[in-house]
């Protein structure tokens, strides 16, 4: 999750650096004097608006995906552990992120380790 956010920030920084370098090259070609013709001002303001809209869409998309992944990871599921020798069944409530291969952490803080013969069933 953090990895995806860092990649998004890195891409945004690269785009900003490239845009600034391009602007600096254009200013150097024109001798450093910026003309304020109405057409050029309109073009610059439209480009800025489109850039802000694009940045907003990227930020909102990233926030939405992050929120959905957070909700999915923290969803509480019921786990039933069956001991084949005695046939006893125990039902636990576990968050998805805390469910491992042979152990899990319950919602109330108990660490449960499973034996090699125990069977686990997830009840969704």
Question: What is the element layout, followed by pairings?
Answer:
Elements: H1 2-29, H2 38-73, E1 76-82, E2 89-99, E3 103-106, E4 111-113, E5 119-123
Antiparallel strand pairs: 1-2, 1-5, 2-3, 3-4
Write up this protein.
2% of the residues are buried. It is built from two helices and five strands, in the order ααβββββ. The chain folds into two domains: 2-73; 76-123, no CATH class. It has 124 residues and is an alpha+beta fold. It has a five-stranded antiparallel beta sheet with strand order 4-3-2-1-5, with no helix packed on it.
- The structural domain count equals 2
Regions with pLDDT < 50 over 5+ consecutive residues? none
Average pLDDT number: 84
* Sheet with most strands: strand arrangement: 4-3-2-1-5
Q: What portion of the residues fall into strands of 2 or more residues?
A: 15-25%
Task: Name a few traits of the molecule.
124 residues; alpha+beta; 2 domains; five-stranded antiparallel beta sheet; 52% helix
Task: Provide a short characterization of the protein structure.
By secondary structure, this protein is of the alpha+beta class. It has helices at residues 2-29, 38-73; strands at 76-82, 89-99, 103-106, 111-113, 119-123. It has 2 domains: 2-73; 76-123, no CATH class.
